[in-house]
Write a structure and sequence with these properties.
With 377 residues, this protein is of the alpha/beta class. The chain has three domains: 5-104, NIF3 (NGG1p interacting factor 3)-like (Udp-n-acetylmuramoylalanyl-d-glutamate--2,6- Diaminopimelate Ligase, Chain: A, domain 1, 3-Layer(aba) Sandwich); 108-130 and 241-334, NIF3 (NGG1p interacting factor 3)-like (Udp-n-acetylmuramoylalanyl-d-glutamate--2,6- Diaminopimelate Ligase, Chain: A, domain 1), CATH 3.40.1390; 135-233, Alpha-Beta Plaits. 29% of the residues lie in helices and 29% in strands. It contains twelve helices and 15 strands. The strands form three sheets. It has a six-stranded mixed sheet with strand order 5-10-12-13-14-11. A five-stranded mixed sheet has the order 1-4-3-2-15, with helices on both faces. A four-stranded antiparallel sheet has the order 7-8-6-9. It is globular. The relative contact order is 0.15. Keywords: Metal-binding.
């Protein structure tokens, strides 16, 4: 049975969670009916008229693009505007459009992973790692006979999850004591008497963003009028996602050889790979960031990389960075550093029964370059 668009979106967003996208970004479904089939899919970097031509000619039901068509905040999608024309053509052709942008830049199996893999880098880690979801640690004291009901209520509110595991907790039995005074309505014990109870100390974690629902669930399920509990904010730790990657080559090579290597293994638009640095310098540790990555030069330098591969490097930025001790800087183009991801996405879609093809023709807007300059004596 052909996968529905909804199923394709769910699968892609499980790998490229929208929560990873930058606040200014516009990711997700742009057009299309989630209940319609989405078996034939075309993957591309940019949504251009040529991409739409290819999709409609082949009966494609969904385009998955890296760059969002409407990221710049269009105020109209009229058919006589460039973006509106594309959307009208897609809707008339019953072809959906989905974008994974900065969420695909940060997630594993993302843009920079594909770039690092194409270059043959090993043991990659994020160049700018992001903290994992901020966690609270909950410690709750509850009568031994009521521990399960309290734990279950907290689980239902979202607590006790660690990666692919659910209902996680640690507990130990001890003795709690309390003395009810005037105004109390104790569930156990009587006013004026010191009461000792066999209690279970239950510990679990929960995302900080759901603190209020977890607290409400705890209070509703706990038998005590005033439950005893602690909430500790966990220190932030870096996860395995974030912009860029840094890894190592299987063997060192000179910068000149590395640039030749990048030119051979990366897709090339009309202009070649270029680099700034000493051509004889030894390159082993390499940082990468697909797309326009000059804002990450500092992170690349801090990582100890010998070279940094990205796109859209600017003259003054590169000149100043090299003066400040930056690694060799390799510009492999915006499209050229992002296109390898298309192969990854096609593989991901195949996993759920889609027939995925890739738009291989460069969508880099620079298509005309000068020929060799004549040499004059």
């Amino acid at each position: 049975m052909s996968p529905r668009l909804r199923e394709v979106i769910d699968h892609l967003e499980s790998i490229y969670p929208p929560r990873l996208a930058e606040s200014w970004d516009a990711v997700g479904l742009v057009c299309g009916d989630p209940d319609e089939p989405a078996e034939k899919v075309l993957v591309c970097v940019d949504v251009t008229d040529a991409v739409v031509d290819a999709a409609l000619a082949d009966g494609v039901q969904l385009i998955v693009a890296h760059h969002p068509l409407l990221m710049r905040g269009a105020t109209t999608v009229a058919a006589n505007t460039p973006k509106g024309r594309i959307l009208h053509r897609l809707i008339r052709g019953q072809c959906g459009l989905f974008a994974a942008h900065t969420n695909a830049d940060k997630a594993r199996r993302g843009v920079s992973d594909a770039l690092a893999d194409a270059l043959g880098l090993l043991d990659t880690v994020p160049l700018a790692p992001e903290p994992v979801d901020a966690l609270d640690k909950w410690v709750v004291m509850v009568p031994e006979g009521n521990a399960d009901q309290v734990s279950e209520a907290m689980f239902q509110a979202g607590a006790g999850s660690l990666g692919d595991y659910r209902d996680c907790q640690w507990s130990v039995v001890g003795t709690g004591q309390f003395l009810p005074v005037d105004g109390a309505q104790p569930a156990i014990g009587v006013l004026g008497d010191l009461t000792r109870v066999d209690e279970q100390r239950v510990e679990m974690v929960a995302p900080r963003r759901i603190r209020e629902p977890v607290l409400a669930a705890l209070r509703a399920a706990h038998p005590y009028e005033e439950p005893a509990f602690d909430v500790f904010e966990q220190a932030a730790v870096h996860g395995d996602v974030g912009l860029g990657r840094v890894g190592r080559l299987p063997a060192p090579m000179s910068l000149a050889d590395f640039v030749d290597h990048a030119g051979r293994v990366l897709p090339q638009a009309s202009w070649p790979v270029r680099a700034a640095g000493d051509p004889a310098s030894s390159i082993e540790t390499v940082a990468v960031c697909g797309g326009a990555g000059d804002s990450m030069i500092g992170a690349a330098a801090a990582s100890g990389a010998d070279a940094y591969v990205t796109g859209d490097l600017r003259h003054h930025v590169v000149d100043e960075a090299l003066r400040d001790g930056a690694p060799a800087l390799v510009d492999a183009g915006h499209w050229g550093t992002e296109f390898p991801w298309c192969v990854t996405v096609a593989d991901i879609l195949t996993e759920i029964g889609c027939r995925a093809t890739i738009f291989h023709h460069p969508t880099d807007p620079f298509t005309v370059v000068a020929g060799p300059k004549e040499q004059h004596e």
